[in-house]
What does this fold into?
Amino acid sequence: MPDLSSVYLAIIATSFFVNNYYNPPLVCTAQLLPDDPTYADFYCGWDWEEANAKCEYHCPSGLDSDCPLLSNGRKRRCIAAAGCFSRFQKVYWTGYIHLSFDKEQHLANTNNAVTNEEVPAEAGPPALDLMTEEETEAFESSFQDYLFEALKEQIQISAVTVQEQEYNRPCVAAAIEADDPTSTALDMEIRILGEYIPIDGSFTDDQFGEEILNSVWADPESFVNAIKNASSFFEALTGISAIEEDSLVESPSSSPSESPTRSYDQTLDIRIDPRPTGSYGIVFNVKTPPGGNSILLTSMSFVTLHEGKLEYEIYSKLGPFERFVGRTNMFDLVASGQTTGMGPKAYTRALEEDTVVNGVQYVGFKPVHVLGDRGQRSFYISMTKTFLADDGSPIPILFSYPISGTEGEREYEVVASNEELEVYEGDGVLEYPWPKEKDGIYYRRPRGFIGSFDYDRSPCLPNTNFTGWPCPYVPQTRPTKIPTKNPTNAPRKNPTTKPTMQPSEADTNSDSGPEAKTNNNADPEAETNNNSGPEAETNNNSTLKVGVGEKEISNAVTGSWKITNKSYCCGLALLM
It folds into this structure.
C-alpha cells in the first residue's frame, strides 16, 4: 500500500489554511464608510449565501450565540457584511396614541399634585404634568419593543419618536369616542420608522399604518402591563388606543390663529429623521414650483450630533449640482463660521453676521435668490476638520436615508416642499474637502438634507408674479393721473408793508420801530424834500448785508435787506 502519511498531513495543512485564512472572520473589523454603523450589516446564516438571501436574523452583537439554530439543529453564525443593510426599504407612519389614565390617581402621581388647602377653589384644578425627557424615552422604548414583537414576522420597527403631547385633545377624544368622566387622556403625535427587505413584496406607508393600528387594537393590555413599571408616571395607565392622522377633524378655533394673509417671511422645515445617518456634508438642489415667483433665501439651519464647537462652510450656485461635484470654485461661499452645535434634536443656525475668530474671517449668511417657475439652486454644506467630536471622530452633518430610490442611483425625491419651495435629495459627502470623483467611495446617494430655510416669498413687491432676477425698478412716487380738485391760492397782488424779520438791535438807532431808521421823518415827503446828495440817499436807503464784512469779497450768494421808509423786501446780492 502507498504511504498515505504525507497525504494526510497535506489534508490537515490545507484544512488549517482554508479555515483560518480563506474564510472571512466572524466579525468584520474593517472600517465601513462613515455613514454606516458597523453592526448594521451583521446577520445570521449557515454561510454568507444564506445570510444574504434571507436577511432574517439580525445579530448586532456579532456573537454566534445570538443566532437561532437551524431546523436540523446545526448552528448559524453571525456573518459580517452580509449585504442586507443596503437592501432595506423604509416606511413611515405618523399618527396619534391616546393613553388613558385614572384621573385622580394620575394627578396624585404627577409633580404638580397639591392639596385643596394650598390652592383656592376659584383657581380651578391643578394642571397635569406632561412626560419628562426620561419618561418620553421610556415610552418610546417600550412601545417600540411592543410593536417589534407584534410585527416581527412582517417588518422591523426601527424607531418610535414622540413629536407632541397634550392632555385631552378634543379631536382625538371625538375620533376614539372617549367620554369617561373618571379618566384623563394624554394624546401624543408620534412618528414610527419601519424597515424591511422586499423579498416577497413591498410595504406602503398606508399598509404600515394599518399594521400598527391593528396590533394596538388587538392587544392593548399587554402594552399597558409592560409600561406600568417603567415609571410612576404610567402607574395609573388604564388603556391605549391609536388612530391615524387623517382621522382627526379639528374643531374651528374661536379666533384666527394667524392673519388671513400669509406673511412674506416664511420658513420651510425639513423633518428630522427618527434614525438619520451623516458624514462631513451633503450637496443637494432646491427648486421653485411651476408658475411660482422668485424667492430670496435669507437664512439656513442644519442638524448635527455634536453639542460643542464646530466649523462649517456653505456654498451655493444657480442651477443643479450634478455636473459640478467637487468643484468648489464653481460655487459661491455664502456662509461660514464657528458656532456651537445644538445636537440631534434641534437646528443649528448658520450665523447671520460676519465674524473674525483668531484672525480668520468668516462670512455671515448672504441671502441668495431662487428664480421662479422651476428655477433651481444647489447647496453644498460641509463641516471642516478644524474641530473633532469628543471621541476624536469627524463631526457629522446629519442627513436621511433614501426615501424610495435605489441605493447608489441618482433618483432624487422631494424631501420637503410648500407653496414656494421644493427641497430635493442629493449626495452625502464622506470627505472634506469634497472629492471630484463623484462615483467614488466618498459619496452616498440619494440622501436627504435635514434642516430649514428662512425666505422672503415676495422679494420683488409690488411685483408678486415676477420670475426673474434682479427685481425690476419701481419708482418710489408716480405723478397723479388727474389734477387735485382745488387749485392753489393765487399770490397776493400787493406786497407786504412790513418785513418778515426784524432788523437786529445793532442796526437800529435809539428810536424804536422800523420807521426810525429814516431820520425820524414822520412825513413821507421828507425823504426827498429835506435830504439831498449822496449822503442823504445813504441815510434813507440803507442796506444790511448778511455774511460779508466791509471790503470783503465773496463769490457766494448772500442775502441782504434793503430798508426804506416805504417798503421792506428781501433781495439777493451777488458779490463778485
